[in-house]
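Purpose: get a first structural picture of the assembly so the mutagenesis plan has something to point at.
Setup: two entries, given in the order below. No constraints added.
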Amino acid sequence: MKIAFSTSGNDLNAPLDMRFGRAAKFLVYDTETQAFTLVDNTQNMSAAQGAGIQAAQNVAAAGAQAVVSGHCGPKAFRMLSTANIKVYTSNAATVAEALSQFQAGALTELTAANVDGHWA
Amino acid sequence: MIIAVASGKGGTGKTTVAANLARVRGDVTLLDCDVEEPNVHLFISGEPQGEPEVVSLLVPEVDESRCDGCAACSNFCAFKALAVLDKRVLVFAEMCHGCGGCARVCPQDAIREVPKRMGVVETMGADGVTVVQGRLDVGVAMAPPLVRAVKAHIPKTGDAILDAPPGTSCPVVATLRETDFVVLVTEPTPFGLNDLKLAVEVVRELGLPFGVVVNRADSSDDRVATYCREASIPILAEIPDDRRVAEAYSRGELMVDALPEYRSLFEQLYTDIVRLLQNPLIAGVARASCPCFMGGTPMPRGALQGPHC
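Result (structure tokens, whole complex):
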């Protein structure tokens, strides 16, 4: 399966970005091939609104079945749920640490947004 | 004449200036465009005139039986109010600005627009001043459409004074558009100066003539005055840092009612605005007599050359 991690960097040692919608990019890791690709999300960093919605479209288009990030707001959660993408939160320092947490089954799946939206 | 009272910083005295100006002027419509927290009514109350007018925004509703998931709507929407995933459209109505573009571009005719309530406009009358205020519903985040609904009550003839929301964002721009003159209220503090500069950038971008009122003026900080002088911005009035003004305010009284000696300050302010609008040579105050504004219809920027262009 493919897992999308929010990050500001370019490899597994890069920091896990606590923000989902306004992360600079997503590292999409394929557990079968153990390879990853990077999905750019910078157009959302300065978006006036709707960053979470667009970011969810980006990870869905990348074929991810799971997202690991620090937080997930209501609109992004609704998008990801619709796309059948599971959302996990982690406070890991790096993508690699979050990945090992995920593979160890140490992350719990969100059943609702864990932060409020910025627009009510 | 339509005068808007605005400020970059909140709490500088916009409502104080707008309400006192309206009181000394009389026979004027005072519109509270700070629809997130209207407060003019605390100072000029009056008998409600009719029932509150409910204001709604038209937002998209998708007929899933007709939608084929082509994403024309979500590609068109600048505000991400529609998203398409797995050929299914999700509507985020709270993001919608009500432009109606999605319904127009839908090739399947699968979108219809339905009203979504966003707030009310209330009208009150008191001693010659008609107060019109917008009140956004709790939980609604988008003010500009309601600001425009308030401004629809600007009389075709006669004078109007608009109390703008604080800041420099969309609700402020929605308030200032199509006005004749902007009064920027500030205070002689570093915050007041910083946010005044931001507000000046906005009114200059909008091409509106404007001047500054310094509230709570004292002699301790002259940086606002220095900035205005260097930027050729007229200081129209200075309201002194007078404890009695604050006391009257805290009782919900108008300054000119509680302290009649301030009447002349606001009468002079009004007179000066009228005078400035007749004088195209005063820097920053040129639109009204610029050729591009002849006949009262703004022309596209650069269509004719004048001091405002």
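Chain A has one domain: 2-103.
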